[in-house]
Amino acid sequence: MKWTTGLLVGLGMVLTACAQDRDHGENAQALAFVDRMVEEHNFDRETLMKLMRESKRKDSILKAIKRPAEKAKPWNEYRKIFLTSARISGGVDFWDKNAEALKAAEEKYGVPPELIVAIIGVETRYGGNMGSYRVLDALSTLAFNYPRRSQFFTKELENFLLLTRDQNVDPTTLNGSYAGAMGFGQFMPSSYRHYAVDFNGDGKVDIWTDTEDAIGSVANYFAEHGWKAGEPITVITQPLPNADMTVVNDDLKPKWTVGQLAEKGFPTTAQVTKDMPANVFSLNTDNGKQFWIGLNNFYVITRYNHSRLYAMAVYELGQEIIKARGGRS
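and the corresponding structure tokens:
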């Protein structure tokens, strides 16, 4: 039989589509996962097998996770994604609509409103984009088809199924990001189970439609990760000519103190004390490199997303939202 180019291309597209949409019903890792969930958590085997057949491998997810913006873009490009007039004005509007809940969260957890608002703004544009992938597809795709982080996403899939069972929710109905993050604040399932709270006391935890729960949950996440109320997040520094540049960008976790960094040639006149844990990092701007000292609260933001660029975007967006609100409380 003679194959034309058109037929070959068409066949290739069909085969690609079939591979892309295949389920996990016969995947060896998925079958092992089912065995463990039945044994350790007393799940019904047939119900889980049905879910594995229902879950779909999505190649778009595998492509997306290999090119996150935090790694692909320099700061001067990354910043432009989040520091926009729309995201700033959206933050003002979200703050105004949820001022009471934000104030209550600050009083309970010590986390300032601008940080909570900025996190939700960066993550989902204030709930405008919570993700279009089924969480089941996202987590199963990455658990069973992405070896580099299979262990992590398998654990998240486990937490997701425990979460949906506890809340009596159909796991096929929930949508999130390509990585399986959910709700206003894009919590991974393990974070949802550990840090999401019923902030308005209505008897359920809902970070998809309930802004009060979403606000309280973000605040609780930061408090649980060591947020220190009233302390600064980051301060700019101008390296001295003899500064020890080997300590720049050396670790996300503060491994020095403000005093030690001053001795190494990174002074600051901001309201910080010499004994505060700190590190120093650089950012590429349109006008050259800029140097900052990251303090404990900056590190806490990176616990949400392990990226200096992410933490800086949250910090700067929060500051811009404060300015746009004109100092209103």
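(Above: one complete record from the training split.) Residues 271 and 288 are 25 Å apart (CA to CA).
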